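Inverse folding, one chain.
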């Protein structure tokens, strides 16, 4: 599955949602524009396995795929950091 297939990015005003897809499973993250870029809100490590049991133990892998997919599709020159509860893109 490619970045084009596994991510849906929707915008409503100053934010929206990003849906990560793996076969019939979905993880949905909210996002919004911030002062210097975009913040994608993600569950903490403690919340991850409870919210997405189908991706238990794979938080880092999934978030890296989301970050790289968003960068590739929407912000190729941006940098990003994956934090405890967010992916921060800087323009």
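Residues assigned per position:
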């Amino acid at each position: 599955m490619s970045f084009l297939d596994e991510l849906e990015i929707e915008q409503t005003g100053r934010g929206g949602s990003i849906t990560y897809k793996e076969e019939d499973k979905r993880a949905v993250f909210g996002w919004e524009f911030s002062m210097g870029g975009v913040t994608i809100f993600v569950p903490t490590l403690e919340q991850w396995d409870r919210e997405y049991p189908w991706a238990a133990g794979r938080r880092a892998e999934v978030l890296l795929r989301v970050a790289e997919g968003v960068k590739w599709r929407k912000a190729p020159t941006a940098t990003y950091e994956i934090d405890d509860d967010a992916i921060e893109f800087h323009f």
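Helices lie at 3-6, 45-51, 59-74. Residues 3-90 form one domain.
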